[in-house]
Specification:
This protein is mainly beta. The protein contains one helix and 35 strands. It has a six-stranded antiparallel β-sheet with strand order 24-35-26-31-32-33, with no helix packed on it. Strands 25-34-27-28-29-30 form a six-stranded antiparallel β-sheet, with no helix packed on it. It binds beta-D-fructofuranose.
């Protein structure tokens, strides 16, 4: 097919990358029509469960966060996006930006599918240029009828993205596996590195490491991690970074079997801590895989680094589970951003500090007695101090109904429990490393519980109609401080 192309060619050089792109006119037209469609369609969205401070699509479906980056003084967050229905479909990249990781602005859709679906990937900021590396999933003639290849797109203004003419830049996994996706790119000493999720020939998940001087031709270096058979059949959305003197391989394995309290979701997200050398390209695993969040709805987490801090965001939904908001014209959202650090042999996650700027008024700052009920708005932050040598039992539910969640602590068992009723339970051991406070973030359809310093975190979707009702079902009185939170995302 001959594409009518706008004739200007962009040739850009910086730190070793030279791009030549041209912009097909019909692609530009499709972008404009898409934004018009989104604007028109937004009016049909029922806002009852739409978050006030979590990133969600304006209309339609979102899954993984992509391209999380800090560029020209702003954070950029993209996401897997299907605008035309509230179910997964041909993948676009939605786009928001923020000065502080809590106030988000909607930007035009960054990538539209053409011959390729725009699967997950990452971004790298260099001077004024923001470059995206993502998986182009293309149809193939033979079983399994798809192939996953790596594509580039770049932008000079952080808003409009042009696909690279020489795509794909990485056409095949070393073993030819069609499962080859979700590149996470970074720079180290004038070279680009990328990790990509893939599969061995006998269908074990693995993460591949590559290096390049220009992002266009890539050299395969090593396998950073691989399932030994019981760690799943595919490792999606890898990320690899230095944190507190260690290296962390974060990824989302598919196919782990549930083991007691662990691996209860359709798929998991977790990490391996170890040592890595850029000379040998070997990642020596020191602490084996552990989940990073124990809630019901947390997947495809990804990170970025800015000002010496490592920030994480994840998809706040789960594959193959109901998404009750889909009848309202949208589905899926992102978690609040968390800051990571390593304590001992685990990662702890704290809500990003700037989230305090969302606080409006203090709703309560006092003791509440057993049986006492509090009523809140849709977006609330709650601190709970209790005597953790005694049981703790809280009920959170919509003031006008819909779902409920119980948060419990039993000192004899030593576990925190998040119970959505009907045996839909997630639980995990908690031994506070310092603080014994629980910090809870509630939005119109979500609950995030940070225990202590963030050594145990649960992210679970809970659908609260008409704001939140909080009941102290414990036998002890609790010290509660709660804030109403302001809107941080567009409607
Ligand atoms: C993870 C994932 C990725 C893929 C994307 C497709 O949730 O399956 O591996 O790139 O979603 O939307």
């Amino acid at each position: 097919m001959v594409l009518i192309r706008i004739t200007f060619l962009l040739v850009v050089c910086h730190v070793g990358i030279t791009y030549t792109t041209s912009i097909p006119r019909n692609y530009e037209k499709a972008k404009i029509e898409l934004e018009e469609y989104i604007e028109a369609k937004k009016k049909d969205i029922d806002l009852r469960f739409k978050p006030l401070y979590h990133v969600a699509p304006p209309v339609g479906w979102m899954n993984d966060p992509n391209g999380f980056s800090y560029h020209n003084g702003e954070f950029h967050l993209f996401y897997q996006f299907y605008p035309y229905d509230s179910v997964w479909g041909p993948m676009h990249w939605g786009h928001v930006s923020s000065p502080n990781l809590v106030n988000w602005k909607q930007l035009p859709t960054a990538l539209l599918p053409e011959e390729e679906q725009c699967f997950s990937g990452s971004a790298i900021s260099q001077e004024d240029k923001l470059t995206l590396m993502y998986t182009g999933r293309v149809a193939a003639d033979v079983d399994p009828y798809f192939n996953e290849t790596q594509y580039l797109a770049f932008s000079d203004d952080g808003i409009n993205f042009y696909k690279y003419e020489g795509n794909p830049v990485l056409a095949r996994a070393p073993n030819g596996s069609p499962e080859f996706r979700d590149p996470k790119v970074w720079m180290y000493e004038n070279n680009y590195y990328v990790v990509i999720g893939s599969q061995t020939t006998d269908k074990r998940g693995r993460v591949l490491l590559y290096k390049s001087s220009d992002m266009k031709s890539w050299e395969f270096l090593s396998v950073l991690g691989e399932s030994n058979g019981d760690m799943g059949y595919m490792w999606e959305c890898p990320d690899f970074f230095e944190l507190d003197g260690k290296f962390v391989l974060l990824m989302s394995p598919q196919g782990l079997l549930p083991q007691e309290d662990r691996y209860k979701n359709t798929h998991q997200t977790g990490y391996i801590i170890g040592e890595f050398s850029y000379h040998t390209n070997e990642f020596i695993h020191e602490v084996s895989f552990q989940e990073i969040d124990f809630g019901h709805d947390f997947y495809a987490a990804t990170t970025t680094e800015a000002n010496g801090k490592r920030y994480l965001v994840a998809w706040f939904s789960m594959w193959d589970e109901p998404h009750p908001e889909d009848v309202d014209g949208w589905a899926g959202m992102a978690t609040i951003v968390r800051e990571l650090s390593i304590v001992g042999d685990r990662i702890i996650m704290k809500p990003v500090e700037q989230i305090e700027t969302l606080r409006a008024e203090i709703l309560i700052d006092s003791n509440i007695e057993p049986g006492q009920v509090l009523e809140f708005g849709k977006a609330v932050e709650i601190f709970i101090n209790s005597d953790i040598s005694q049981k703790l039992d809280l009920l959170l539910e919509g003031r006008e109904g819909d779902s409920k969640v119980w948060l419990r602590w039993d000192p004899e068992v030593g576990k925190v429990v998040v119970d959505r009723g009907s045996s839909d339970i997630r639980q995990v051991e908690w031994s506070p490393i310092e603080s014994q406070t629980w910090r809870i973030f509630l939005d119109s359809s979500s609950m995030e519980l940070f225990c202590g310093e963030g050594e145990v975190v649960f992210s679970s979707r809970v659908y609260a109609l008409g704001g939140w009702r909080f009941t102290n079902e414990s036998n002890q009185s609790l010290q509660i401080k709660a804030y109403d939170l302001k809107r941080g995302v567009p409607e």
